[in-house]
Amino acid sequence: MLLGVVLGLLLLGGVGSASAHAALSSTDPGDGAVLQRAPGHVTLAFSESVGLRDDSFRVLDPGGHRVRTGTAGHADGRADTARVALPGGLGEGTYTVAWRVVSADSHPVSGAFTFSVGKPSQTTAAVDTGPTEDPLTATLHKLARYLSYLAAALLIGTAAFIALCRPPDPAPLRRPLVAGWWALLAATVALLVLRAPYEAGTRPASALDADALAATLTARPGVLLLTRLALLAPAALFLVRVSRTDPHRRRGPLFDAVGGTLAVGLALTWAAAEHASAGIQVPLAMTSSALHLLATAVWLGGLTALVLTLRSTADAATVARFSRVAFVSVTVLVITGVYQSWRGLGSWEALTGTTYGRLLLGKVVLVAVLLAVAAVSRRWTTALATAALAVREPGRVRERVPQPAGGPPDPQPRADTDPDPEHPPAAADTTATTAALRRGLRRSVLAEAAVAAVVLAVTTVLTATLPGRAADEAARTAVPAGGVLPASVTTIPFEIGTAGRGTVQITLDPGRTGDNAVQAVVFGPDGSLAAVPELRLSFTLPDQDVGPIEADLSDRGGYWSANTVTLPLPGTWTMKATVRVSETDQVSETRRIRVER
């Protein structure tokens, strides 16, 4: 199965890109744009649908004062956009737009960019996009998320163990059922209360704001958490019935259907709020995510139930049934895990080049350890089943007991030692060693449950980590706070004869290999916009003997631009600007710029 995971990643790792966290695709006005007239709106386009907040936009004027704007909304009804209206009569200078939205998978995203009206300011306002997250709020939110996963595994897994494995006495399992239900209730309430400060990046005390809480209850993440709370009420009634029903009495199909529906409904409240709800193949992804969560709960929660059952009385039939259920759960986990890994990574390089990929590798290693421990548990299970068969049918078991090369096993095993699960004892001694077999199985299952808890913790972190696909897309389209990348803005001074010294400010966006947009603004000696007859721009990479590559600049009335200039290789390029200052005179200057991959 582990080999299947690796092969699946190798085969599927190179399929086309998609995203799971929202990545900024474009802005209007463009970042660093110099406009002749003030725009009426600011519009952002994202790689996926986004949710808007009351403070999704903050526009600062050249002096750093906040500009009064309209209410944020979506452009043309498209959920993957954000737009805000600007007041009329914006003055000359550089304006800063700080934005903050919530991705479809419930994670907040923020950033900033600049644009200028008339001409750029000599200085721009300091950009503050707001805190990405408050450390205390983030810690409490992560703890609540982990507790919710742990509680769901305990609740669903224990209920499934009672229903599918039919232990002879379900009484010891009532306590974990109650604990799981209350823990899930508490974690869900905590997530609901912390949602507003988590989105805003503020301290937990801001959760007491009634308006913020009301906004949370009407947003999609809040609605899903309310749905989870609503499902817990009928789940409590179902669990009472499950724990009190005679395990040997067959339940009707309607009873099983109700339990399955409640479990699926709870699982979907996670699937619809996280990575599966955005990006490619959303219906399939949500189905896979729900199945993955249910399989995890049935296996890992069932382990806890098995440990508690082994402490009292556990017949071999119950253990054997759980062994079969666990095998099916692992199979579902592998299939859904391969699909979700491909969907989240996007490329083989992301497996080692992103935090998401490295966490995924760590999870695979832990799952490998978990499966190895589970294999040991399965050996103990087989030994216990063989011992039980020996009690019921002594004649048959002697034929089935494996015989070592040196002869039959010792007919008088010591009572204070555990038997070898590879070689169960003979039928006459089976009854005396059943308790020892149960102790060995219990220790193995305890180790399995401990590793499983670590796997669940890594999974919690993984669901809150930017997937490899989205990280790659965000790296290609990111707009840094404060405007364009420093390496993409170059100011070249030039002489204008006896008139003085002018400058040309050249913006290369994004300043990386591949297609780049170019904007060039010419300033006169007094710092005002200057009209020149011609402006030419070329790029050369001397180390690789590439170029010159000409940028096809067009006069846009106040500035010059080219939609695309392709720089094929990373390195230190020489940029040459030629400014014609009159019909007969021109001046050329060069600057070295760094182009990243």
Your description of this structure?
- With 597 residues, this protein is α+β, with helices and mostly antiparallel strands.
- 47% of the residues lie in helices and 20% in strands.
- It has helices at 2-12, 135-165, 174-200, 210-218, 220-244, 253-271, 282-311, 316-345, 350-353, 355-392, 394-400, 427-463, 468-477, and strands at residues 24-28, 33-35, 41-46, 50-51, 57-60, 66-67, 81-85, 93-103, 108-117, 489-495, 501-509, 514-523, 534-541, 546-551, 554-555, 560-567, 571-580, 586-595.
- The strands form 4 sheets. Strands 2, 4, 5, 6, 8 and 9 form a 6-stranded mixed β-sheet that branches.
- The longest helix has 38 residues, at 355-392.
- It is elongated, with a radius of gyration of 32 Å.
- Structural class designation: alpha+beta
Q: Strand tally, please?
A: 18
Described by the principal axes of the CA atoms, the overall outline is elongated
Distance between the termini: 37 Å
Radius of gyration equals 32 Å
The major beta sheet can be summarized as: 6 strands, mixed
Q: Indicate the mean pLDDT.
A: 75
* Low-confidence spans: 1-20, 396-417, 477-487
What fraction, in percent, of the residue positions are helical? 40-55%
State which percent range the strand residues make up: 15-25%
Q: How many helices does DSSP assign?
A: 13
Summarize this structure as a short list of keywords or feature phrases:
single chain, 18 strands, six-stranded mixed sheet, 597 residues, alpha+beta, disordered N terminus, five-stranded antiparallel sheet
